[in-house]
Amino acid sequence: MNQQPHPASWQSHSFRAMGSQIVLWLDSQNVAQAASAFAQAEALFANNEQVLSRFRSDSELTQLNARSGQWVTVSSLMWREVNRAVDMARQTNGRFDPTLLNALAQAGYDQSFERIGSGRNGRWLASETLIGRWAEIELDETLQAVRLPAGVQLDLGGIAKGDTAQQALSLLQPVGPCLVDAGGDLVAGAAPVGYPGWPVALSRPGADDTAEADALATFWLAEGALATSGIDYRRWVQAGVVAHHLIDPCTGQPANTDALTATVLARDAATAEAWATATLISGADAGIDSLLDVDLAGLVVGRDGRILATLRMDHLLQGQLSPLA
pTM (2 decimals)? Predict the structure, then answer.
């Protein structure tokens, strides 16, 4: 969120979860109620990470991936997230694909990003038979069971974090207007009293999120979710090649895209997360066209410095976009 001065009633609480800095905001004079809601939201993030993390050997997701090809009865949380992921893959025509964990690992992203070092050895090994298989995931609603295609593994990543932020918002809303900042991906409830929304800033690609001067654009955000996907931050060297974490479902390798970042505004976090990824992988022009087709607000920064925005996003901007140079 924009770090400009704010009213004393805007209470906040921060912690780390899901590989990100999480910041919760509440517009409320009731300190005790806010503290209780903050504690519940932090516990929610911890619980969901334990269930949905691909980096924990004892997580439910790891156990589900280990049993690909078999029917597995899952928890209500896992059922919710797998269904959301499959639904978003369908809506984006597979440009967002939750079945890319094997390709991610082969690209070198086989542990949390903070632990990835440069100069890693390895080869591009992604097999076409192990990517793009989201449509083959079987779901049995009666048994609340999932069967992954044999050899295929799920990465729920951004969907899990975004939807957890959405769930956290539901815990905060009874106390007052609120916003959840999940590592720069934002989910907002009602606008704070006296404001049209929560003041948020979109950072320039590669910039420090906390630097006010590095704001590319500013928004008033309320009753919606804003997600940004980019190749400007999570990068490493694999087999002498610079790699990143956004895999092209068509190749199984880090996407060769002319888009540097893509930001999407939607009614819920899972939709914003999936379409931000799909837009970035599609490329600047094709990505904006796809957002226009589904009537979503979005903004793309190209590697060449171009800034493209849909008309819906234009209407949300405060003033003019800052130039990249």
Answer: 0.84
